[in-house]
Amino acid sequence: MAEKIIEEIYKEHSKRIYLYIFSLCHNEQVAEDLMQETFVKAIISLPKNCVSVLPWLYKVASNLTYDYFRDKKRYSDYEEQRNSIDFSEPDRIISGYEYQSLYHCIQLLEENERKIITLHYFSGFKQYEIASITGIPYSTVRVTATRAREKLKKLMKEEQI
User: Fold this and answer.
1) Runs of H (alpha helix) within 85-137
2) Share of the chain above pLDDT 90, in %
3) Distance (Å, rounded) from C-alpha 161 to C-alpha 33?
4) Residue 51: helix, strand or coil by DSSP?
5) What share of the chain is helix, strand, coil (3-state, %, to 5)?
6) Which candidate among 47, 76, 106, 109 keeps its CA 20 to 30 Å from the CA of 154?
7) Using CA atoms, how far apart are residues 110 and 91, in angstroms rounded to an integer?
8) CA angle, corner 89, sides to 83 and 90, nearest 5?
9) Domains in the chain, please, with CATH?
10) pTM value > 0.90
11) CB 114 within 8 A of CB 108
């Protein structure tokens, strides 16, 4: 019975979690590994009073990705990867030219802006939930979201989306 529930949770949320992690690390293999690890750790450490699994999955994914880049060497690799983003992987998952173009523009935002915009628009979380998932103060989430939307509008105008 428990295996079936875990399998359902994985099928329902794995693409979202993968895209979220990929938007942070820009590496197909790392995103896949961190996604698998996210599900394992999230299921093992799921709080008893957890009402919804999805915010917990995002929190675990966010923490694991942060841990991955904590090492300075990996962080410098991350900056190099960010400057040479390969958009082919998300294109296979995200359908529709407009969504793909939007996703590409989001990848050009700063890390916290990307997290907030991705969690809000692609996953449907409210700002207070994003604050809880990411550990960023609620007021900072609000300000960053506003600034990120303005940047995104500008980028989309430049890309003629």
Assistant:
1) 88-93, 97-106, 111-117, 127-134
2) 25
3) 32
4) coil
5) 80, 0, 20
6) 76
7) 21
8) 90
9) 1-93 (1.10.1740), 96-161 (1.10.10.10)
10) no
11) no
